[in-house]
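Hi everyone,

Forwarding the result from last night's run.
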Amino acid sequence: MPDQIALNEDEEALIVPSASKPLRVQIARYISNILSPITVSIPFIFLVALYHARNTLSALTYASTTLFFMSIGPMIYILIGVYQGKFTDIDVSVRSQRSGPFLFSILSALVGLFTLSFFHGPKDLQTVLLAVIACGTVLMLITLGWKISMHASALAGAVTMLTALYGNIILPAYLLLILVCWSRVVLRRHTTAQVIAGSLLSIFLSILTLAIRGV
């Protein structure tokens, strides 16, 4: 029997798990978890850090620092919020709950950017944090009235930046973006319009940031 849908106070569709789930829902859940923003950020940041790195140890150190401020810190904030009952789940599925995580993530990325700048960290990693700040700010404003997809946005931005650095060899990774968009729609976390908007917005802002930074 497929999952039932309930509406919250924002009239957004939420999943109410049933005893058994269709295979496509199970597959969508695996894809959504594997390609979540925090899991995507790990290989993404290390690949950016290692791009033409002269000192591998230094690159890994800066990558770890960037990951902490960009992903790990914000995820800890969300996990604490879930534990305290402020958020429904680690995806922060209810739109009205998303302003706090967005704001915390933007401020955390700002601190990370200042930290890398102070220690003369890699330009590419600083560019990533600038893109995260720009994209996060726009997404936060949109989310005040519309639940745009963070999963799609995070993966689209990562693939776009890696393509700019490593070239066409990364292009097949856009197929993963199609998968994650499909999974979010199947799970009824987002509409088709919301995943497409999240993807296109992140691609545009990533390209714009790269152009401004001359990367």
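The two ends are 50 Å apart (CA to CA).

Cheers,
N.
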